[in-house]
């Protein structure tokens, strides 16, 4: 710039002088008595009349113009202005050529040559055209922009370099009416490539009175690209703002809402409009407001703040928020605060629950008497419970037990065995469950343990192992004692079994052999009565009756004892029995008694069972006979026989409306020879129900009675399904 004799200044859009050449510096000192310096404005240099006209020309022509201003009676001020573009085609600043010429030299050939040189070398594409469209002249920048030579450009019409469309037609029409045009149109290069451009066109009259058009064109492709990027960024930001699931908002420096998204409105439990009329402070609990205001104040001073706070919606819902606040800068000045608030109420609740669960888990494992330990793949303990570190390792707290391996608290042989076993469990993934093992604690004491090891993975597929060791030394001692006791009991049971067999054999033989003398006695008594009946008095006849009756009762007792001893001793074949048929047979045998007492019998649905038929038949026979025997004299006997299927057994009921049994005798009636009535009232030996109990016991079931004295009884018994 210093080698050019023409005074040249560079100014920005605010007319501030930003650079100058030597000629310009000399020109300003001589002409305006001003020296260029920092923040010197063109307005301060030019005379007020020239300044006003210059400013109008500059703004009206977008900084592209050439004009002559009256400076004095004999002198004029000639100014040529042209924009300077950056690499992106955007206007960076403006170049001014200023010189003082005499009035008569204004249109001299020298001035014209200088003007042409300036126009030709301008970085702006400049066209001289006829208003009807043909191009008369162009500068180098125009040729470069459109890809034509100057010769090719001359004679082209505007529609060769501008895309013909409604926008071009409207722009030309407007220029022809107003004499000036400033518009954005689409340029067309020689290659056919189109590009956005900014066009400034002015119609003027030359010295010969001909209408001409001066047009400057700027390629704004880069600017449009940047505008598109900016618009896309704006839309992306707007989408991020509007559709963000978290609350996004901004405050002024007093904490009043400037903007907020829908998520923020939902968080506040109201509308955007309502929140825009208030500050954020009423939404914070009073006990937390001072702390939150401190964070806000720091954000207004330029610090990014992140914190958690409680929050109360306008409907009273309490939440916990994770808040980030950061300052808003405009022209390097903080004008407000942006904020993002995430509702972490559920997360905090879950974390609290996890903490509570962990504390509960910790309390549980610490109070479990078993030794619990967790080791990693390096065999280092990473968790131990109280029983393990206190009773097994002999340390006072868990921290002292962590990081240890078996090699550090056991002898070498035992430690190696444990480490190899742990490795096998972790590598194979197969747990060890309840393995009995003898170990030694920190004092070297031997313990019998029940050991469980379960492999697991944690973190980046790292291997680990959970171990539970239960001290069963005391159990082992008890097992030993129990084994000794069981052996003694077995020996005693064998003795009892032998004794019982002997007793059963004795009872069978005795009852069988006792029948023979009784038969003989009753036989001789019958012969005695038959032969001497007419010779014996009434007293003798009575004695014979008593003796015969006693012998008959004794024989019945012997028969019942014989039957009692046979239960469970003589095996019977297990067969499938239809109980309805079996009960029908029993009732047929009891037909005489049923007919005499006019008894009513009701039978429910009865199942099929696989049992010993003789025993089951005797069981039903004894219970039905019992119900008929102890019927009430005040009402007709009613007997109901039913069954009920349970999960593991069948339950049978034989219900009557007889005389009933007092509560104190309900257990006694199943004991052999236990009678509740005199023989004169009800016949019997007192063995029938004892036989029933022995049969049911032999089946593996239970028998009991439920009775109301004077109203009747229900006898229940069960038979297991797997019998």
Automatic annotation (TrEMBL):
SMART domains: HATPase_c, HisKA, PAC, PAS. PROSITE patterns: HIS_KIN, PAS. One of its GO terms (molecular function) is phosphorelay sensor kinase activity. It is an enzyme of class 2 (transferase). Residues 509-723 form the Histidine kinase domain. PANTHER family: PAC DOMAIN-CONTAINING PROTEIN, PHYTOCHROME-LIKE PROTEIN CPH1. This is histidine kinase.
